[in-house]
Design goal:
Number of strands: 14
Radius of gyration: 25 Å
Distance between the termini: 72 Å
Largest sheet: 5 strands, parallel
Order of helices and strands: EHEHEHHEHEHEEEEEHEEHHHEEHH
Helix content: 40-55%
Structural class: alpha/beta
Strand content: 15-25%
């Protein structure tokens, strides 16, 4: 990319070490104006220091946007309608946040007349793919600067040296102690990677976890909650109507207090390597269990089974960064069509890391018919003699093959 062609860049900016260095590096290497964008997606951190740091670095256009409701309403909720879970364990907390951030980067680039966008994702990870696939889908001609694929600052020590030489303030100290874990947080989860976690045999230290108590230290009395679903989305907790972001925040609070949502995973990155990460997703763990429970009551068998078959493909699309790809949109349309009947209430018991379904009901869409399913006298609702022909027809091919083998 011709550096002289870049006059203005929108940078996804947290104010941490990496993006603080990137901000200065863009100004020096590209001689361009930098616009900073900091997204509030529920990471639970004070974002105003990012504004102060950007101002001190000479940035004139600073965006700090509260995207919490959009994040849950337009990204998390649609994903949970699919019951998406990657490789059987990962609830896609980081994956689902990246398309929203990239979408806003593209919007700000258009608003400010920027030539390019930039991000702090490394060349080893999934995030570079997620940011850039989204960006190209929304603006095919956007130019993208990925410093980790261009510069030679390929260690934390080199980044610290660069920051010190240019007077960039950072919170990290050179005291010989190990740096904190690489963490990513939003309303759906918090992730931990790096350092002792790079040995898959090492158990995470108790002090690492931030949102959840250890299950063995959780209360000795369970919590009972009721979640109301409308068209596949949770709209109320214990009868109290809440916005999507409020729902997730409250479920995080309740679930975290009961030790729910910890995961320790070795996953397959899109770029080809395996990586080990630990995750806290208390609210999402509760949401997934409850959503499957209400679907079990209201979804037709074959529709439910087809959803389960499609889910791994859907989850891989989210994980690999194809949120705005036509195939994800196609799957979403099919999934959303099924959710018109996913209405009702699920009652859950939360106890020492466990989420147990203890009740589900739907006044309008339940397909459960007690008069048919009962073990008692059904007053003719089901003729058991019908099963004879059903079984013989389904056994026909097996009997034919059995005779051949005999």
């Amino acid at each position: 990319m011709a550096q002289s062609a870049i006059k203005k860049v929108v940078l996804a900016y947290s104010g941490g070490l990496d993006t603080s260095v990137i901000l200065k590096w863009l100004q020096e290497e590209y001689g361009c104006e930098v616009v900073t964008f900091t997204a509030d997606i529920g990471q639970g951190e004070e974002l105003e220091p990012a504004r102060a740091k950007a101002t001190a670095a000479g940035v004139k256009e600073i965006y700090i946007d509260d995207l919490r409701e959009e994040f849950v309403r337009d990204f998390v909720y649609p994903m949970f309608r699919a019951n998406a879970i990657y490789e059987g364990e990962y609830l896609l907390g980081t994956s689902i946040a990246r398309p929203l951030i990239a979408k806003r980067l593209i919007e700000i680039a258009a608003e400010t007349g920027a030539d390019a966008i930039s991000h702090g994702a490394t060349g080893k990870g999934n995030d570079q793919v997620r940011f850039e696939l989204t960006s190209y889908a929304l603006n095919p001609d956007i130019r993208i600067i990925a410093p980790w694929r261009e510069w030679d600052l390929l260690s934390r020590e080199k980044l610290m040296d660069y920051a010190a030489s240019r007077g960039i303030p950072v919170e990290m100290k050179r005291d010989g102690a190990k740096s904190p874990y690489s963490m990513d947080a939003n309303l759906l989860h918090i992730s931990y990677e790096g350092y002792d976690l790079e040995d898959p045999w090492v158990e995470p230290g108790a002090a690492m976890w931030r949102w959840t108590v250890a299950p063995e230290q959780a209360p000795d009395r369970p919590a009972i909650i009721e979640l109301t679903f409308e068209r596949g989305d949770i709209t109320a907790i214990d009868g109290k109507t809440l916005s999507p972001a409020e729902v997730l925040a409250e479920l995080n609070r309740i679930g975290g207090a009961h030790g729910i949502g910890r995961a320790d995973i070795v996953e397959n990155r899109y770029v080809g390597m395996k990586s080990r990460g630990c995750y806290e997703t208390p609210g999402g763990t509760i949401m997934l269990k409850a959503h499957r429970a209400i679907e079990s009551l209201t979804l037709d068998r074959e529709a439910a089974h087809l959803k389960d078959e499609l889910m791994p493909r859907y989850a891989s699309l989210v994980y690999n960064g194809y949120w705005f790809a036509p195939e994800r949109r196609m799957l979403q349309a099919a999934i959303d069509q099924t959710q018109s009947v996913v209405n009702g209430v699920v009652r859950l018991k939360l106890y020492k890391g466990n989420v147990m379904v203890v009740g589900r009901k739907s006044e309008t869409d339940s397909l459960f018919d007690a008069s048919i399913a009962t073990f008692e006298e059904d007053a003719g609702a089901y003729d058991q003699k019908d099963a004879t022909g059903f079984i013989r027809l389904n056994a026909l091919r097996l009997r034919v093959a059995g005779r051949k083998r005999g």
